[in-house]
Amino acid sequence: MAAPLSRSDVAHVARLARLEVSDEQLDQFTVQLAAILEHAADVEALDTDGVPPTAHPLDLVNVLREDEVCPSLSREEVLAMAPDVQDGRFRVPRILGEAP
Amino acid sequence: MTAIELATGVRAGTNQASVVVDDHLRRIAEGDGDIHAFNLVIAERARSRAEAIDAAVGRGEDPGPLSGVPIALKDNLCTRGTPTTCSSRILDGWCPPYDATVVTRLEQAGAVVVGKTNLDEFAMGSSTENSAFGPTRNPRDPSRVPGGSSGGSAAAVAAGFVPLALGSDTGGSIRQPAALCGVVGAKPTYGGVSRHGLVAFASSLDQIGPFAANVADAALLLDVIAGHDPLDSTSWPEGIPSVSDTLGDGVSGLTIGVVREFLEGGADSDVLARLDGAVAALRSQGADVREVSIPSVIYGLSAYYLIAPAEASSNLARYDGVRYGLRVDAPDIGSMYGATRAEGFGAEVKRRIMLGTYALSAGYYDAYYGQAQRVRTLIIRDFARAYEEVDALLAPTAPTTAFAFGAKTNNPLAMYLSDVFTIPSNLAGHPAMSVPFGVGDDGLPVGVQVLAPALGERVMFRVAAALEAAAPAAQVAA
Q1: Of A13, B15, B243, B246, whose Cβ has the fewest other Cβ atoms within 10 Å?
Q2: Prediction ipTM score
Q3: What confidence tens digit (pLDDT) does each residue in A1-49 have?
Q4: Are B107 and B65 in contact, with CB atoms under 8 Å apart?
């Protein structure tokens, strides 16, 4: 059995998921996620020794196609819905900079 | 009129697509203020499509098997130049640069898309209460939910706004709302319908399928949208079998199993009573119905709520405010991501992203996600054993009839239990469908679910047609 979920676990997960959460949400998520994981305890406890995992229900592997040039979306179409664009590229806030 | 009757009339020139489409647009205009099945109605585009179909018929051409039939699309299916929101603020106003393959197939078959229907945000929910744009009401009783996540599509058909609609089903999101709204809804075999242009939720489970007011219309719609698509690498190369031509084949000689674990799975007594009625009806039509055991299905719900959020947490990482959708400005990119996702996603989507991220995180991956994947194998094996004995399985679709607004919103786990009977088919990749079969003690529709092995759509539709023929006469369209 995994250890019960703590508030700091939830805060860590929110950082991994790039989600800003308020203190109130953190409390709520801790209770709710713990309840869902508790329900999953039956699965956790099941003996699955020697059982292979199923990632995908279809027995399809290495779906290949000819490497042919075909039409794709234009740069204008791709950029049309972007929040911010400059010189034909997506523009984003600063990635690197002075440490805060 | 049924979709088949409408299309037959338009193809023969005895009816006009423009008249059909105008009639349905009028029904939507009059009724959807109360129901809110639609996020968007595209009346002008639909009217010009209908005129083009009438012109083609006038030239002696055949626009296809769905000529002039109005259809609604769940708003997680991409429509070129037309907003596709997933009922999420993070995609509000976004217009995709391409059509989903199913949309292309529908237009090639002569169908007329009239609008985009409401859903639980990113298809995460069982009541359509998780929509950022407000809930959909159940046309059978507006104080009740329509089910979800494809609640808008189910309600649109139940209200008579459209004869056909498309939904997507990851853990029951077509079948459960079909049951709660008293319409037919089918989830095909995984890989049977192309998902190119379906906004991804949980990629090893998601499948597109039809809603209709009757089994024959659902069969025709499935035949139109099914088939291999090179743009979807999970699309089944040989395609699923056609179903429209098997509806009259009856159930005589078929062996049908009732899953014991589902009978003990917490369904209300009135739902189980309708299931008993369905068993009796199939027996009287010549089927051999017997109880079978699929022991591992009791773990389906737990396994699903580890696998689906894990896949969702990965799929929804793309909503980062960079290429499309909402952006909340912030001085650096890290805080822009966090603020955009906090503002753009609703509570249930955040809950599942968090749950999935946790289930995939270092130290927990094997205990949760890995273990759930092994349980998935056990479920597939148990189904295979049952299908050595029987041709199809019978189960309730949902444990209850349509429930009241707010009844389960504060308890995620109670909401998740709505899908306890539908989830195993998604885990196995099998087809399953819900057929209306009478009403519960509250007078609201009850659905009976038919399950079949992979690529077993023909036997599934035979059983569905037999159930429809025997269903208690309470399924009057609203």
Answers
A1: B246
A2: 0.93
A3: 456 789 999 999 999 999 999 999 999 999 999 998 998 888 988 999 9
A4: no
The residues of B annotated as belonging to the active site are: 74, 149, 173
Window 310-369 of B: residues touching A by CB (8 A cutoff) are 313, 317, 320-327, 329-339, 341-342, 345, 347, 350-351, 353-355, 357-358, 361, 364, 367-368
Counting the structural domains of chain B, the total is 2
pTM: 0.96
Residue written as tokens 């308020």?
Answer: A22
* CATH at A23: 1.10.20.60
- pLDDT tens sequence across B267-310: 999 999 999 999 999 999 999 999 999 999 999 999 999 999 99
The C-alpha atoms of residue B413 and residue B475 are separated, in whole angstroms, by 31
Per the structure, the complete domain to which residue B385 belongs is given by: 255-302+366-470
Kindly tell me the burial class for residue B429, based on how many C-beta atoms sit within 10 Å of its own C-beta (0-12, 13-18, 19 or more): buried
**Position B217: which residue type?**
D
Instruction: List the CATH number of the domain containing B173.
Output: 3.90.1300.10
A contacts of B372 (beta carbons < 8 Å): 40, 43
Report chain B residues whose CB lies below 8 A from the CB of A93.
329-333, 336
